[in-house]
Each structure stands twice: as C-alpha cells, then as structure tokens.
Design goal:
Elements (H helix, E strand, L loop, with lengths): L1 H27 L7 H23 L2 H12 L3 H15 L13
Helix pairs in contact: 1-4, 2-3
C-alpha cells in the first residue's frame, strides 16, 4: 500500500513537472524539458545554492560537482514519471489465489 501511494505521489509530481514544462515552452517558444535543478531554482534558488555550498563545503566537493549536479540535470518529468510508474507496477494489486486446486 505504501509503495502504491508513493508511486501515485511520484506520478502526481511528474504531472506537475509536465505543467511546468508546458508553461516554460509557452514562454520560450521552444520545446525542452526542465531539469530538476531548474525546477528547484524556480521554486527557491537560495536553498539550491545553500545546499550546494553545504555539500561542497562539508563533504567531498566532487560529491556536489559533478555528482549531484548531474542528477539535477535530469528532466523531472522523466525521473518522477518513470519511478512512479515503476512503483505502481511493482506494488500493483494482484489476484489472490485462495484455492489450491481449481475445480
């Protein structure tokens, strides 16, 4: 049940990313999917830079760049959509087979 709920939440996030991509496409006039970093920066750019500074300053700098910055370039629609559908398929309701032998 938790897996299906998480799957539906990720599909919902994918749909929100699709809406953000559509709005960005209307503004720019060209097709392109927004990466996670662009979506995060649109929501709160200060927190993105603060997290980047904290990770680079308190851990290995290579963990932030190129490690997590590569992940932040992945389109949110694809990441959330694929993970959500994968969870929905893995945790789908299955037919119960109560009988050992079919009549």
């Amino acid at each position: 049940m938790v897996g299906r709920l998480l799957g539906w939440l990720l599909v919902g996030l994918a749909l929100m990313c699709f809406g953000a991509d559509a709005m960005a496409m209307l503004e720019r006039g060209t097709f392109g999917l927004l990466g996670l970093g662009e979506l995060w920066a649109a929501l709160d750019a200060n927190s993105l830079t603060a997290v980047g500074d904290a990770i680079a300053g308190h851990t290995l700098p290579e963990l932030w760049n190129p490690g997590l910055t590569t992940v932040l370039r992945v389109p949110g629609l694809l990441l959330f959509g694929v993970l959500g559908v994968l969870l929905l398929v893995l945790f789908r309701k299955r037919e119960r087979r109560d009988r050992l032998f079919a009549s």
